[in-house]
Design goal:
Layout (H helix, E strand, L loop, with lengths): L1 H6 L4 H28 L6 H21 L9 H28 L2 H8 L2 H11 L10 H22 L4 E4 L2 H5 L20 H28 L3 H23 L11 H29 L1 H5 L2 H16 L2 E3 H35 L7 H6 L24 H19 L1
Antiparallel strand pairs: 1-2
Length: about 400
């Protein structure tokens, strides 16, 4: 009987794939509910405030009880760094995202976000955190991938192109879906400023990438990831409240006027922040950052299907061409990072001094082999409330800088 039970145990690799698919569909749902929230008239300032309050209520207690021994003493310097992290990772990131989503569509918002690893690579290279080997294939892959991502984002921004198709419009018009969520007008040419929306989304990507780069040295000095995230949410809430004091003075905007509005806020706070954060920590810990990152385009595909069914989203030629280039560039950058790590491990193994042993034992020893598995014990420090893939690349960038410092 015990043998039968052991035979029915699901392998961990299968669990990882299932978890990653669920994670990407969960994030895809966040794009949809965010668009639906905007269609229902929720304030672009109130929505992220409620979202981060829910996230803080979920993550704060966990950080307090689970990281008592890991959490260093809180100083003014750390508070300033947390404030800056919130400015980039919460306020600018989420603010630009909602502004961009309002003028574009969920599918293209998700597609442009695939360029974040390439933007992060550029920032890390400029700051000396990332090594660029132009004469090696891994370096060329990262450069070509970055160019493809930037080119794809540029095409989406500057060339909208003709509409391709709008799926399921008949069923939507017949009222089979909730008409409160289906609001065609914000997606129409009349109210849509495509270029402005794409510029906002690029600002979202730049803020996101900047947050990754800033976060790396903070986590080295303050290695309590849940606490850092909780403080970041707290300061993000404070910053949004300061903005609301000037731009959101209507008390009615702070009320939930329907069950649909309440659902979008709860989904954003609980699923996209709380549950997704926990799942991605486990996935990065067990599968590694590159494994997590390769699933990112699944989110874009899921968003396209959901948005066409639920929101009646219309696709445009320029967006499709740009999305293909961005996804291709993403995989080139990820392959370059994986190949660079493999070569670095191989170089270290070759240059490592031999272990002390007798001459006979050294001759009888087997050749050195290098595992391509990534040490994921530190990868958990680079997790995000919004997307998992960025932190893996951030970890790789900081690891490259650390390697360069050691040899250097």
């Amino acid at each position: 009987m015990a043998d039968i039970v052991r035979g029915c145990v699901v392998p961990e690799r299968v669990k990882l794939h299932v978890a990653m698919l669920a994670l990407q569909f969960g994030y895809a749902g966040f794009h949809i509910v965010s668009r639906a929230a905007l269609n229902m008239g929720i304030s672009k300032i109130v929505f992220p405030i409620y979202r981060n309050i829910i996230a803080l209520l979920l993550l704060g207690p966990a950080a307090y009880f689970l990281e008592k021994k890991e959490r260093p003493p809180l100083t003014l310097s750390f508070l300033v760094q947390f404030f800056l992290l919130a400015l980039c990772g919460i306020t600018a990131n989420q603010g630009f995202y909602l502004l961009g989503l309002y003028y574009t569509t969920p599918t293209f918002a998700s597609a442009i976000q695939n360029s974040v690893p390439a933007i992060t690579f550029i920032m890390a290279a400029i700051l000396g955190l990332e090594e660029v080997h132009i004469r090696r294939r891994d370096g060329l892959a990262k450069i070509v991938g970055t160019v493809a991502c930037v080119g794809g984002a540029t095409i989406i921004t500057l060339y909208k192109g003709p509409p391709i198709t709008k799926l399921w419009l008949g069923s939507l018009n017949s009222g089979s879906l909730n008409p409160e969520l289906y609001d065609v007008e914000p997606l129409n040419m009349k109210t849509e400023n495509w270029t402005l929306g794409c510029i906002y989304l690029l600002g979202n990507c730049l803020a996101w990438s900047g947050w990754i780069v800033i976060q790396a040295p903070v986590l080295k000095k303050y290695p309590a990831r849940l606490s850092v995230t909780s403080f970041t949410c707290l300061f993000g809430i404070i910053q949004f409240l300061a903005i609301a004091a000037f731009f959101e003075k209507d008390p009615s905007h702070w009320k939930m006027h329907s069950g649909g509005e309440l659902f979008t806020v709860l989904y954003a706070g609980i699923v996209a922040s709380g549950i997704a954060f926990s799942v991605q920590i486990w996935c990065i810990d067990r599968g590694g950052p590159v494994f997590v990152a390769v699933y990112q385009p699944v989110q874009t595909i899921a968003v396209a299907v959901m948005a066409s069914i639920i929101l009646g989203e219309q696709f445009y030629l320029g967006g499709i061409i740009g999305a293909i280039l961005i996804i291709a560039g993403l995989y080139l950058v990820l392959w370059g990072k994986s190949e660079e790590k493999r070569l670095n491990l191989l170089t270290k193994a070759i240059m490592a001094p031999p272990q002390s042993s007798t001459p006979d034992e050294e001759e009888a020893s087997t050749p050195i082999t290098v595992s391509s598995n990534v040490d994921n014990s530190t990868a958990k420090q680079f997790t995000n409330l919004t997307q998992p893939l960025l932190h893996g690349l951030n970890r790789n960038a900081t690891a490259s800088a650390s390697d360069a410092t050691d040899k250097h």
